[in-house]
Amino acid sequence: MERKKHKKMFDVDYEKREAPISLIDAETAFEDWDKKELKTRATYFILNGIPEFSVNQQENGRLKLLAADKDFYAAKTMGVTMVTVRIYRFSEKNGEAFSCVEKLKNGNYNALEEGYLMQRLIKEFGMTQEDVALLIG
Question: What angle do CA 27, 123, 58 make, to 5 degrees?
Answer without folding.
Answer: 35
